[in-house]
TrEMBL record:
Keywords: Cell membrane, Membrane, Transmembrane, Transmembrane helix, Transport. InterPro entries: MetI-like (IPR000515), MetI-like_sf (IPR035906), Phosphate_PstA (IPR005672). PROSITE patterns: ABC_TM1 (PS50928). NCBIfam families: 3a0107s02c. It is a multi-pass membrane protein. It comes from the Bacteria. The lineage of its organism: Bacteria, Bacillati, Bacillota, Bacilli, Bacillales. This is Phosphate transport system permease protein PstA. The chain crosses the membrane at residues 12-34, 66-87, 99-123, 129-152, 181-202, 264-284. Belongs to the binding-protein-dependent transport system permease family. CysTW subfamily.
Length: 295
């Protein structure tokens, strides 16, 4: 009787906690939607922000967020994938491997402000790039790389070892086994790591304050030359992202409608993260079916 009562109590407590978490999340999203919905318009999404008048938009900041996300994933995914494969399949157990894992855990626990100061020293001052998109993307790569390596390693080690042993028993090389057997089976977990890393890029502000800057120059959207100073594709120009813009608008308060702009930008940021996650899941399932030849 006591065991049954304890089981029912535990079930009730955990159910209540789950409902509470969902309620808090729903309430937060509803509040952001309520505050920012009136700001959503084509002009708000495409026009540049205003420095001192009301009615400005977030067009350049929205583009900068996706551009920095793209560059960060270009650096993070291959390096994280390679590091995770090495740690899971090629690194021999020992003190060196344990030391590497310790370093990865330390890097994963660093505050973003520390990564930003490191990026300021290395990618801004030491390289002479000043504030730039490339510096911000590299700083976010340092920020996300430890998480990506651990997620890839855990995803690979969670694959049943019988699959690897069966492949090796058939005479398939180690690398071909990793490439054709282990990685396709671990792909859902790897995709989760990519989505988590992307979410951190969208919402990060502290590291970008010191690396990509808090301003965006006037851009010529028809100029696709990546080496031109007015081109939006130039990786050596400063770039203010949505998260940084929200911080800037709330702290400076120079425009009359600062609260409305911040609310609208926060809603756009939430929608962008949601759409990215949904799109990544859809593409991930398609790629996983192709890799595993499953329907």
């Amino acid at each position: 009787m006591n065991k049954k009562w304890t089981d029912q109590l535990a079930t009730t407590v955990f159910t209540f906690i789950a409902i509470l978490i969902v309620a808090v999340l729903a309430g937060l999203l509803s509040y952001i939607l309520y505050r920012g919905f009136n700001q959503l318009s084509l002009d708000f999404l495409t026009t540049p922000p205003s420095s001192y008048r009301e009615g400005g938009g977030i067009g350049p900041q929205l583009f900068n967020s996706f551009y920095i996300l793209f560059l960060t994933m270009v650096f993070t995914v291959p390096l994280g994938l390679g590091g995770g494969i090495y740690m899971a399949e090629y690194a021999k157990p020992g003190k060196i491997t344990d030391f590497i894992r310790t370093c990865i855990e330390v890097l994963a626990s660093l505050p973003s402000i520390v990564v930003g100061l490191f990026g300021l020293l290395v990618f801004v001052q030491l390289t002479g790039w000043s504030y730039s998109i490339l510096g911000g993307a590299l700083a976010l790569t340092v920020f996300n790389l430890p998480v990506m390596v651990r997620v890839v390693e855990d995803s690979i080690t969670s694959v049943p070892r019988e699959q690897k042993e069966a492949s090796l028993a058939l005479g398939i090389t180690h690398w071909d086994t990793v490439k054709t057997i282990i990685l396709p089976a671990a792909f859902p977990g790897i995709l989760t790591g990519i989505i988590l890393s992307a979410g951190r890029v969208f919402g990060e502000a502290a590291a970008l304050l010191f690396t990509s800057g808090v301003t965006t120059p006037r851009l010529d959207w028809m100029n696709i030359n990546p080496f031109s100073e007015t081109s939006p594709l130039n990786v050596f120009r400063p770039a203010e992202t949505l998260a940084v813009h929200i911080w800037k608008v709330n702290t400076q308060g120079l425009i009359p409608d600062a609260r409305e702009v911040a609310d609208g930008a926060a809603l756009v940021l939430i929608i962008a993260v949601l759409l990215f996650n949904l799109l990544a899941r859809v593409l991930g399932r398609f790629v996983h079916r192709k890799l595993t030849s499953s329907k």
